[in-house]
Every structure is written in C-alpha cells, then in structure tokens.
Amino acid sequence: MREFLIANMAPVMFASMVLFLLVGFPVSFALAANGIVFGLIGIELGLLGPQLFQALPDRIFGIMSNDTLLAIPFFTFMGLILERSRMAEDLLDTIGQLFGPLRGGLAFAVICVGALLAATTGVVAASVISMGLISLPIMLRYGYDRKLAAGVIAASGTLAQIIPPSLVLIIMADQLGKSVGDMYSGALVPGLALTGLYIAFVALVAVGKPGWVPALPRAARSLSGGKLLLRVLTTLLPPLFLIFLVLGTIFLGIATPTEGGAMGATGALIMAVARRRMSWELLRQAMDTTAKLTTFVVFILIGARVFSLTFYGVDGHRWVEQLLTGLPGGKIGFLIVVNIIVFLLAFFLDFFELSFIVVPLLGPAAQALDIDLIWFGVLLAVNMQTSFMHPPFGFALFYLRSVAPASVRTTDIYWGAIPFVCLQIVMVGLLIAFPQLVTLGLDQEVKVDLDSVQIEVPVSDYGPPSSAGGAEDDKKPPLDAEDAAGRAIGDAMKPEGMKQHRTR
How many angstroms separate the CA atoms of 24 and 30, rounded? Predict the structure, then answer.
C-alpha cells in the first residue's frame, strides 16, 4: 500500500477530491481538506518536507493582496446597483417598443438587453431574474411559445459570462497568469458573435414558425416617432456611456480593470441617483450581496491554493501535463478532450469551481503545447458558459424557474435551453477553427533568441592616448566604449517593434 501511494499520490489525490465534490461537500472546504490531509500523508511517506505548510500563510497573504481580484466586488456592486435601480426594466420597455412591429421583436429586445446588461453588470443571476420578471409575462401575454421565451431569457442572461466585464474572465486571467485587459479584449468579439448567433436563431424561427414569435399588436406600441426617439436616446445613452467608461478605458490602457470597476461602481451610483431610485435599503442590499459573493470567491480560492500546494508538491501538475499532452492528435486532440471534460464537469460544477479547480491544471499543459493562453482562456469561458444552461442543473434555469409563472413548466425551460446550448457548442467550434476571433488585435509577444543576438560595438576615434603607456593601456577600452557596448546590448535585447505590456 505504501509503495502504491508513493507511486500514485497525484491521481489518488485528484480522485479523492472528485469524490468529495460528488458527495456534495462544500467546494472550498473539500479542496482545503484534501490538500491538508494528503500533505500530511506526503510528509509521512517522505514525498514532501515539513516546511510545506510553512508556505500556506504566504499563499493566503498573496490572495488577499492581489489587486486584480479587487475588480470582482467592484463589478458585482455595479451590476447589483443597476439591476435594483430597474435599468433592465427601462431597457426592455424601450427596445421592445423599438422592435415591436417585427416578428420576434420581443425576443430580439431580450437578446439586445441581455448583451447590454452583460456589458454593464456582468452578473448572470441579476440579468436572468430581471428579464424573467419583466419580459416573460409580456412574451406569454402576446402569444410567444413558452419554450422559446424561456430559452431566450436564460441564454441572454448567460451572456454576462463572456461579454466583458465578466467575473469569470477576471478569475481566468488570474489563474492563467495573464492580463485581465487582454482577456477582456479577446472575449469581446466572441461575446458579440454569440449574441449574433442568438439573434440569427430567433430570425430563423420567425421565418419557419411565425406563430411562435408574433409581432406586438399596434395597441401595445404606445410610443412612436419623436417620443420613441427621445426615449431611446435617454434610456440607451447612459448605459452606453458607462460601458465606454468601464471597458473603453481598460481597452485603451487608460485604466486597469480594478480602476475601471471602481469607475463603473461610481457611475452606477450616479445613474441610480439621477433616476431617483437610490435609497439606503438598495445600497445596503447591494453591499450585503457583494460581500457574500466576494467572500464565496475568496474562500474557494484559498481552498484551491491549499490543494494546489500539495498537488504540485507531489508532481500532480506533471502527471496532468503528461496525461494531456500525450493525447493523440496534438493540439486539436488536446482541445477536443479538454472541452469535452469541461462540458461534462459543467453538469455538476459552476464556473467559479471550474475556474479554480480545472483551469490551473490545464494551463501548464496548454502552455507546453504552445497554445496561446488568452485564446485558451476565452475558449474555456465560452465552454463554461454552458454550465448555466445544462439541464437539469443549470443555474440560469433555476433562476428563471424561481420567477417564472406557474403556466411555464420546468420541462418547458429545459427544452427551451437545449437549442441555445447547441449554439454555445457551435461557438466553441468556431473559436477552435478561427482563433483570430480572439487573438486579432492583441499584442503579440516577441520572442528573442538570445543565441542569435549579435552585438556590434561602434568604433570611434577617441583621440591619442593620454600616455605612451604600454600594451596594457592599449588593451583597456575607454569608458565611452564600455557605455556604448552597454547601449548596444540594451538595443539588441529590445528590438524595434517590441511593445511593453502594461499590467492591467
């Protein structure tokens, strides 16, 4: 038994962690308990040194001092303030009036509002619940198919997962050791493309099954002409300005994601005050929920760090890397297997748990195969988006079930989600086939082969030597020549066109 444990400590530890999760033990405590127990076993077997646990305080302090993670409470607070100030209600009413004459107009409005809420709130629960409360009764009242209506609302709410500012992208960047700004830039086009796929699907339904998505009757379209234009401008301009304030400054390198989140939270408060919907109760609820979510994330991260400390100590990362890099098919085989694993795990784990448990194990293997980690992170984020839509455990489906009227059955919600899960899988395939959707516009790292660097020291006439000294004086280079050599080395190490990456 001792020899078996010594030879197979990493897979036994991983299997134990999976067993704990399947039993339903809280994720953070399951990770921490596995790390501590197997750490003690490893010390007893001589695989690890007793100083292993001396590194735990440093790991925890590193989490608490990580400035990148400050963006999570900022963006969460911003989303909650906007959701509780009924911005979603105003947007749905306005865009619904705008698309009302079209078949499927309400569905188009829900998708567009879902994208806008994703770009301002970044909170899936808030988006799904808000649109479920507001738009689902209206869609049912005017004859929309129950399955389609439920699927559109649930899928649109999950756009907050991939369209920046997304909480999962912040965590993904932290786990992969990449810039949050680059992760946001890489996810923008795939997020908009997925929105386009949703709209295209509804348009096809409007052509093939027009009875499922009727246009609003004229009596329901209360605004038109100048009044509608004014309503569109006054309702859409503030959130669009907030989107530019948050995302635009991050993309342009003016602000870090943490600074962008702080500006977004301030902008959300100003918008709530301007709409005269700000109150101490609203502020208290938003702060309370933000504190709970942030604490939840930090506890999972601490548990994951304890687990990874022991897992890496027993060479678990090398075991995973060898297991995945040895798959047939090279990069494509690796990507197919990884995405299938993530897709299946998403039935049982939410995106936070997947980000903290799976991504740190997959990152080194992807790097060993020379896979761009920004692209890999966005690919996994799109895949993990399906975790919200999987029947029967999808969180978005439960959020919608909690606010849906009794006439909408649970089976209607499940069947309505399936076409959109398929569209998300199609998006994963498109990202694998066309990585430029993510990498286009990102700064490419310039690799310098130090062995091929040639240093040419400029030759100058420094005048006659100060003394007629001997050969020793002639061999010693003047001070200016040494400086020139140093400058030449610096120029060689920084070739023209190499860009400095700003830490965002």
Answer: 9
